[in-house]
Specification:
Chain A has 338 residues and is of the alpha/beta class. Chain A contains ten helices and twelve strands. Chain B has a domain at 1-108 and 249-355: P-loop containing nucleotide triphosphate hydrolases (Rossmann fold), CATH 3.40.50.300. The longest helix of chain B has 18 residues, at 213-230. Classes of the chains: A alpha/beta (338), B alpha/beta (355). At the A-B interface, helix 7, helix 8, helix 9 and helix 10 of A face helix 7, helix 8, helix 9, helix 10 and helix 11 of B.
Chain lengths: 338, 355
């Protein structure tokens, strides 16, 4: 395999709270290849956003702390970079867009000011040139009258437009990696389609690698080549999108897919449901973290934490003791009691 | 509006179903919020046209799904039906049982409204914001009974325990506080509170939108069970079209304060006729990579217009790929019944297969 663009190894990010230590990310390893579009899927509290924040070094001590792990970007160790060097990478080679475009834009400055600031921070251009680049970028994200709109403030844009501005800002320095954390979760579905369509087009044209963080398996299906599923701070399954969707190996992935309502499917008498709720990240269950909710758990699962092992497709791995032996795609969804 | 719907009021057959089966009949509902200027001498300078003349009926025991994007008026409609908001005009006829005389919720007096609120309940979207953090679960669930003066305190507590069991929680949870529960469990508490007065009709305003997928399924199954068990009628408000397809018997799609299309569940998804419905359905992602790669997506241009300045004619004409100048930007399309039970408000309707 070619040299990865991003290499994350055994990342552990913990938060200190009054109740105890929250192990938000607990031993996560993965690579992103140049130009790869990778989905990180998980429910609230699975650690997907904290993984992204850790890569960008946006975890603020003393509340949170990267306890161990390596994060290499193009061979550079990000965790040992000086703050000003990290600042240059942030928004330069790695860009990030967040869920809520209203809170990630500064309401008192014009869109133009904010774009120009980012461009001038990373590129040796004059203010007038930066302004031209900014207008071009707004045009690239299909905002009408881009030059005139540079003088508008964020509140004069709709939610979808603001997210376009964020994408413009994120891509302004032609990053090699774009981290998009729930970029369309706050948007309506037709606007989401516009934004995902735009991101796909731009990433494709520029060969940008994308780490798409989302809870929505549908959005990932249309956008990503590869997927990793997170649960309670660790990766439970990963593989190509086809492998994971059509032949899930981990009971959690399987349960998630089976519990989704689908647009192309009429009424089902009952939806499959994953019983119970995710564990507390302060007191994680012994053994497999999913075992208390798993329909297939055996004694071993309650004692030994499973590691990722190849199962199913060629590039597919699951952290499940029973992954190889179970053929989940032939299992009829179990109906959990009320 | 002179369309099929108006003719088919209580007293006449609707979709081949006799009038006795209607529980809710909304006629020409309008809700406008005035925009005022000035502090002491408030002057109305405009209005937000949140709901503009919509009519729909709900049959006893069915689930009507009301879908649309933010600002389409779906929540305003729900709140006007319950009269949590005062409708600007229109009628909301409620019929408690097949034999009772309909009461207009929109004009009911205080006593009538008090009585109506026993039968009509609501479950809100945000299980974190809709439960008072300083009240125990028992006092939250028993509050409606207290307000309506039902039973002694022991009887109410007994009912609380029963309700907790019904919604899949343990009776021992009665003395705990909302923060001790997860999002899904809180939504169950909200459902228990709505059921306390044994209602006939429950408005569910985005009840699963704030929940994770695995928990969403649990709550949807619960709502399904409760409907069967207690013969409930639901008005299910949501923006998630996949959830709506699963839970609803009939679906109405709203756009900018009007109903664009209304049909039986499968007809809506398999034979959609309104261009907005086409765009909406084509935009919903499906968890299936191959299907996603081969789907044609209708990407709408621009944003939804402001409801304080809606476009003339068809409200969708500014973004519609099929809009014709001189027609769609002038004439308001009526909601016409183009197939039995399938209503469409479009000058150029066309069935499109989206899968």
């Amino acid at each position: 395999m070619a040299e990865p663009l991003l290499h994350v190894h055994n990342l552990r990010t913990y938060f200190n709270t009054e109740e105890g230590v929250v192990r938000a990310v607990d031993g996560v390893s993965f690579d992103v290849a140049p130009g790869e579009r990778r989905g990180v899927v998980g429910e609230s509290g699975s650690g997907k956003s904290v993984t992204a924040m850790s890569i960008m070094r946006l975890i603020e001590p003393p509340a949170g702390e990267i306890v161990t792990g390596e994060i290499e970007f193009n061979g550079t160790d990000l965790l040992n970079l000086a703050d000003d060097e990290m600042q240059r990478i942030r928004g330069g080679q790695i860009a990030m867009i967040f869920q809520d475009p209203m809170t990630s834009l500064n309401p008192v400055y014009t869109i133009g000011d904010q774009l120009v600031e980012t461009i001038m921070l990373h590129q040796p251009v004059s203010k007038a040139q930066a302004k031209e680049i900014a207008a071009q970028q707004l045009a690239d994200v299909q905002i009408p009258n881009p030059t005139a709109r540079l003088d508008d403030h964020p509140h004069q844009f709709s939610g979808g437009m603001r997210q376009r501005v964020m994408i413009a800002m994120g891509l302004s320095c032609d990053p090699q990696l774009l981290i998009a954390d729930e970029p369309t979760t706050a948007l309506d579905v037709t606007t989401q389609a516009q934004i995902m369509d735009l991101m796909l087009k731009l990433a494709d044209e520029r060969g940008t690698a994308v780490l798409l963080i989302t809870h929505d398996l549908g959005v990932v299906a249309g956008f990503c080549d590869t997927v990793q599923v997170m649960y309670a701070g660790s990766i439970v399954e990963r593989g190509s999108a086809d492998e994971l969707y059509y032949d899930p190996q981990h009971p959690y992935t399987w349960g998630l897919l089976a519990s989704m309502t689908r647009l192309d499917e009429g009424h089902r008498d009952r939806l499959h449901s994953v019983r119970g709720a995710p564990p507390s990240l302060i007191e994680l269950p012994k053994g497999c973290r999913f075992s208390p909710r798993c329909d297939f758990a055996i004694d071993l699962c309650q004692h030994v934490l499973p590691v990722l092992r190849q199962s199913g497709g060629e590039n597919q791995e699951a952290a499940c003791h029973r992954a190889v032996e179970l053929d989940l795609k032939t299992v009829e969804a179990v109906t959990a009691p009320r | 509006m002179t369309d099929v719907l108006e003719g088919a009021g209580i007293g006449q057959a609707v979709d081949g179903v006799s009038e006795d089966d209607l529980i809710i009949d909304v006629r020409n509902l309008v809700k406008e919020f005035p925009i005022t200027r000035g502090v002491f001498f408030k002057k109305q300078v405009g209005a937000v046209y949140a709901v503009s003349d919509i009519s729909f009926k709900i049959k006893r025991g069915e689930t009507l799904g009301l879908v649309g994007e933010s600002g389409c008026g779906k929540s305003t409609t729900a709140r006007s039906v319950l009269r949590l908001l005062e409708p600007t005009s229109g009628e909301v006829l409620y019929k408690e049982s097949p034999d009772s005389t309909p009461i207009d919720v929109a004009t009911a007096d205080k006593d009538q409204l008090n009585e109506l609120r026993r039968h009509i309940q609501i479950v809100f979207q945000d299980p974190y914001a809709s439960l008072n953090p300083r009240m125990t679960v028992a006092s939250i669930i028993s509050e409606p009974m207290l307000v309506h003066g039902v039973g002694t305190s022991e009887e109410r507590l007994e009912r609380v325990r029963e309700l907790l069991r019904i919604v899949g929680l343990s009776p021992e949870h009665a003395n705990r506080y909302p923060h001790e529960f997860s999002g899904g469990q809180r939504q169950r508490i909200g459902v228990a509170r709505a059921l306390a007065m044994r209602p006939n009709f429950v408005v569910l305003d985005e009840p699963v939108s704030a929940l994770d997928v695995s928990i969403q399924a649990q709550v949807l199954n619960l709502l399904d069970d409760l409907q069967d068990e207690f013969g409930l009628t639901y008005l299910f408000i949501a923006h998630d079209l996949s959830v709506v397809r699963h839970i609803s018997d009939r679906v109405a799609v709203m756009y900018l304060g009007r109903i664009a299309e209304m049909a039986d569940r499968d007809a809506m998804y398999e034979r959609p006729m309104h261009p907005y419905t086409h765009a909406l359905l084509s935009a919903v992602p499906i968890p299936d990579p191959e299907l996603e790669a081969n789907r044609k997506r209708i990407i709408l241009e621009g944003d939804i217009p402001s409801p304080s300045n809606p476009p003339p004619g068809c409200r969708f004409n500014t973004r519609c790929p099929k809009a014709k100048e001189g027609v769609c930007d002038i004439d308001v399309p009526e909601l016409r019944e183009l197939e039995p039970g399938h209503f469409v408000a479009c000058h150029f309707p066309e069935i499109v297969d989206l899968f």
